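Morning, I've got a small favour to ask if you have a moment. It would help a lot if you went through both lines with me. I owe you a coffee for this, so here goes:
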Amino acid sequence: MSQIEIARKLNLTPANVSRSIKKLCELEIIEKRYLAGKLVGYRLLVEEFEPQIHS
């Protein structure tokens, strides 16, 4: 599923989805999956995690 499709389904802008995916990758919660050099999806890296609440 592309980021544009994710944005449509969640009623968000593609830019917000892109930033969120980038942050999840930085936090090592998900990783991008490639096949023959092409992005084909994302993989969840942690089975359970405690969400961090920022104040």
About this structure: The beta strands are 30-35, 38-44. Helices lie at 3-10, 14-26.
